[in-house]
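Slide 14.
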Amino acid sequence: MLCMDKRADLHIHTNASDGALSPHQVVMAAAEASLAAIAITDHDTVDGIDEALNAGDETGVEVVPGIEISAIYGEKTEVHMLGYFIDHHYKPLLDQLHVLKNARFNRGVKIVEQLNAAGVPVVLERVLELAEGGAVGRPHVARAIVEIGAASSIDSAFGKYLVEGTPGYVERYKITPAEAMSLIRESGGVACCAHVAKLNRDELLVELIEDGLQAIEAYHPNHSGAASRFYRGFAKKRGLMVTGGSDAHCLNSDNSTSVGDVTVPYEVVEQLKIAAGK
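Slide 15: predicted structure.
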């Protein structure tokens, strides 16, 4: 494969958080898609990285150790911060992720309690089984809702029960975008704001640059071509790197994407390496 043809998917989830595939299966899917590199960016956990790195050694797919930290700006603006080439054994990072994992578990318990009170007989033990020991997320609850026939699909379960204004909505534990970026950078990683067109808060991006933002994700399944072009120009004007990826969860959902659905040139990986001092 010529260098100019090499592609990378820099936003993928495994069953260490709310994806359907194991880290090994994700790497196998990347190899089948002829990708040169992928980033494992699970929500608030690094538990899948070592397995993915081992699979990468077996297949020749380069695995970028990463993360996606869920942050809240102000009262309710959800901001997802991607970290690339982090040291996933860095203790202060692991300590904070432990806090976030506990908060996700407690949120999951409260969601189930509220659903039960609303007459939706979701069982917590089943939600935990679906999480397979990883961080508990709303997609696990949604899958349990579908299993009992209370919704026809994961998307329907979210719309009926898990978004703001519905019986199962519970606010998440709050960490600020600036705090998330500090964790990423202190662990040796590159801080990137995820799906910026979906966020649609350009003034916030400018503020985040002052706090240490180094890249933005301009290529994403939810971004139109026009949006990607706009944010590519936005990044160039402000000296930011541009990343992209499928945000693959590989779920049985109308909106779920697969590994390799959105990619960027491999040179982006090289740029991230330089920024991370690798």
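Speaker note: The chain has a mean pLDDT of 94.
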